Amino acid sequence: MIKVEALTKKYGDFTAAEDINFEVHAGEIFGLLGPNGAGKSTTINCISGLMVPSEGEVYINQHAVTGDAIQAKASLGLVPQDLALYEDLNGAENLNFWAQAYGLSGQFMQQRIDEVLQQVGLAARAKDRVSTYSGGMKRRLNFACGILHQPKALLLDEPTVGVDPQSREHLLGAVEQLKAQGTAVLYTTHYMEEAERLCDRIGIIDHGKIIAVGSVDELRSQMGEKDLITLQGDFSGVEPDWLAAHVAGFELIEWQPQTVRFMAEQAAEQLSAILGRFATGTVKQTAVQQANLESLFIKLTGRELRD
Amino acid sequence: MSSQRMPITVAGLRLKRLVREKWGLISWLAIPTIIVFLMSLIAGTGSGKLTGKLLITDHDESAVSQLLAGSFNQGPLAEIFTAKQVTEDEGRQLMDAGEASAWITIDAGFGEAFMNNQPGQLRLVKNPAQSILPQMVETSMQLLVDAATYIQILFAEELAVLKPMLETQKFDDANLVALTLGIKQQLERLESTLFPPQLKLIEKQVAEVEETSTNITFGLLMFPGAIIMALIFSANSLAVLIWDDAGNGVIPRLAATPKALQAYSTGQFLGAAAVFTFLTTVLATLGGLYFALPWWQIPAIIVWLVFAGLVLYAMFVFIALLMPTGKVANITISATTFPLLMLGGSFFPMESMPPWLAGIGQFLPNGFLLKGLKDWLLRQEPMMEALWLPAVLGLVMLAAFWLLSRVLVRQLIHKV
Ligand SMILES: Nc1ncnc2c1ncn2[C@@H]1O[C@H](COP(=O)(O)OP(=O)(O)O)[C@@H](O)[C@H]1O
Ligand SMILES: [Mg+2]
Q: Hey, what domains does chain B have and what are their CATH numbers?
């Protein structure tokens, strides 16, 4: 339903997205997981036609976004990262505006407005001005405005940033419902747990490039059976040679004066031996992570997902 | 692909928000009203001694016409007016330059007609920029005409005797005595006659004062320009609101829909048209009543001014969209507003500006739209003649800016 082919977007000399390729099928949620500035919004904006790709092409429901924009956009729903609402109007008025923008009218429009209000749990506040809403309620309304016309393809750009747990539940529930109805959903986030819970497949994006793609299980298996060990402290003058020789399954990720990261098999069992090799006071903090998206991201980039 | 009704919804939402916010609408109505009111107060009372220049062109050069012209050089009128004999061309030039209060033309044959008890004609041209002096000329003329009428009716026989004497410059003693006696008898008869009701009736038959303008005061001169001031204020605020919708994400999101951005642009124009209709209806109706304009002129004024408002709005939207940020757009539009108001005849009527400034003002969009309206409304040029050229220019501007705006609004998404 959504097909991104060799998409590259440059801002002047700076390449914000490079050779991005993926497909999102009907009834599938595809996640783009990456830290701030990774190029998620850039990718979404190229798909929605707000930006023209420097190279590559995007197809929505088989219509090229640059060549056949009107047809492509007709199948598309967009929930932008930044709120796009009239704060001095009430929720129903905003929905009415966006419903008409997508060509809905009459009784069907009214019925859809009522349905999405139910879906995001704002029916009781529909007649209140948006300026009186909490941040989470605004996000829910922003989301509702993008699904009024029942798009076949839906782009969600970090829809849960900064929302309360209740609003997050509403939003994630609504996205799962849309998937069940056959919508192709592209979901960007920098929350690993959200991606793990929601997405059928995930692309990990960093510095404008997709560095790994697969289902959660497939991505986990890229970590092998290894765990990730992170040590904080003062490692100046210490060399990783001993660890490389003695730790089972050792794989160095990062060796910095304050932080040391490496992979190891059965980390819990080896940990006391490892810590014993350092002089007292060298290691101030120890963390062991089992294989997950977070540890995979660190393995792939040497950096944490959250900054 | 967007709903057919979307432009109307967009316009409706715009109006709803303006009404809710109130102060924009109130100030757009209040500022021009107050300015016109103050200006007409100042110009209406005036201070200091009035002196005016009166031009007289005498094509007749008869004894009667000289008598009439001379009356402005005698008595109380001489204190107020300096009368000057001019040729037709001089008279027209001086009036066009605004250098005299009024210009009286006595057509050839006036004296002859007067003597023969026939209708005669005087033409009066008043300076529209002045209110009090031309009014006095008109009143004085009316008095003179009335008095002359009297003489004509009462002394018809005597005039018949006098006429050959004046023409030949030969005064026959016997005839003069008879004349004097006749006048004396008539005057005695007069005392018992109630004449005022007859006066007006006769006056119309004898002499008609053809006016080029009616009751033009400073306030009336300012009134159309003041409505344009309200339009400029509102058009510039409404134009800058486009940037708000870019900043709050609405325009980028509309750009991701199949066609709603066009419907949105149309809706903004509709909303602006509704605001202009409201403002001009209120202001033109108030002004029309205050200045006692003929009722049928008011709808025509409203239509013209709404059109003028849309031309200005399209221009401001175009300027706003050209700018790199909302802030720059705001500053630029505010900066263009002031010279537009000053030169385009909204603060000072062009009639009271130095000619070279008024010359510039006439080429500003608000200037030529205003000038057309005033030529028709106040100078009583035929409506079509006064308005066709500004209408064509305005339409071209409106269409061009409208189309450019539709293209430029797409660029906004890359600027926010
Ligand atoms: N309009 C722009 N001009 C220049 N650089 C930009 C622009 N928009 C985004 N960037 C840069 O491109 C990179 C990717 O940004 P973005 O796609 O917004 O990332 P994300 O959504 O993943 O946080 C960032 O480094 C950002 O600073
Ligand atoms: Mg982003």
A: 6-45+215-414 (no CATH), 52-154 (3.40.1710.10)
